[in-house]
Amino acid sequence: MDQPDLEELVGEDLDDGDREALRPADELLRITEAPPEIPEELAASIRAIPQSEGQPVKRSGRRDMLKSRRLTVYAAAALLAGIAFAIGWIVRGGGDDTLATPADIVTLEATRFASNDASMEIDVFPIDPAGNWVLLANIEGLEPVDDAQYYELWLTQGGRVAASCGRFLVDADGRAENLWFNAPYRFSEYDDWIVTREGPGNERSRVLLRAPVTTSTS
Question: Full-prediction pTM beyond 0.85?
């Protein structure tokens, strides 16, 4: 059966600019060869992502509805691109010594707004020819959140959140292990890695974890 094209997936409500912004993620999904079965560590990462149906829905006008749908589509595209790229990395030989060696290891440490023992360690694997970085992370010390909240990993520019690398949850002990993320960005354009807690109504916590961007883009 033929795969649905991008227009069928996102509908007709997005303008041309938004649709074109989604096209790289759509193309990545189409060229990535799926493995016989998804590795357990990747499946665990997918299960940790909160479902959009669980988020509260506010009554609003058409503009707010389109904005909400647009954000949902972008989040889904980023998530699917990360999953597809991680699967492709594993299929291409993620167990090989060269491919399995991180290009950098980043440790995000707690700010004064998080528990002192909170941290996030990210293995940043080498950039691919398309400009994508695969990230493998372990988190500890963050507080569990309710059903309407989640944590998000960001890159910042000029002290502001600028690019999302993915969402995640932690268990009752504040831990999450072997979570896959994707960063299709030029790290030289960003300042810091940060983690925030996100909630309904654009609710966002202060920065909980932080580390400077040190990974080379070359």
Answer: no
